[in-house]
Design brief:
This protein has about 220 residues and is α/β, with parallel strands linked by helices. It contains 9 helices and 8 strands. The strands form 2 sheets. The chain has a 5-stranded parallel β-sheet, with helices on both faces. It has a 3-stranded antiparallel β-sheet with strand order 3-4-5, with helices on one face. The two termini are about 15 Å apart.
Amino acid sequence: MASIAIDGPAGAGKSTIAKLVAKKLDYIYVDTGAMYRAIAYELVKTGVDIEDEKALTDACAKMKIEIKYEDGVQQVYMNGENVTPYLRTEETGNMASKSSAKAPVRAALLDIQRNMAVEHNVVMDGRDIGTNVLPNAETKIYLTASADERANRRYKELTEKGEAADYEKIKADIIERDERDMNRDIAPLKQAEDAVLVDSSDMTIDEVVTEILTHV
């Protein structure tokens, strides 16, 4: 089975690009961020203190995460409940950034992710796919964009949905999340030595997809 790893910071467009690349190649797209967000959503819902390692380990042991494809679209189930609609809130995203640095959370997902790559041709995106989850992936991409561009994309995404958005706050959150992701003790965000750097700041979505496909 073949695997493509796409890593990069929050807001770089990894999910959008990975889905399109997977579709072009007829691979399965695995959104690892959605898995971490599912755990984060459950932690927020149940009020678990993520600084309490025993409580966090116990909570993760009770969680059953499943990835299903319904009409070709990935759905994430937590303990039998489809939690996909709740994964993209700011609260869930911020908790995911904090909780994904914790060993019990990473351990809970590592085997699931690796097994998917053994059973299927996959495009997998996240923070540490090429460095940690799939170190032997045939193609590794590090997809990034400037903090200004990432904040601008998020701002447009929210305002187009009719939601209130503060550009400066979004940018500050992105910079803070980058700092947290890059400096965590376990599997920090970094470009794998054998990954191709793709800076999408001044590229269209189609241009990024085409660029990645030339490296596959």
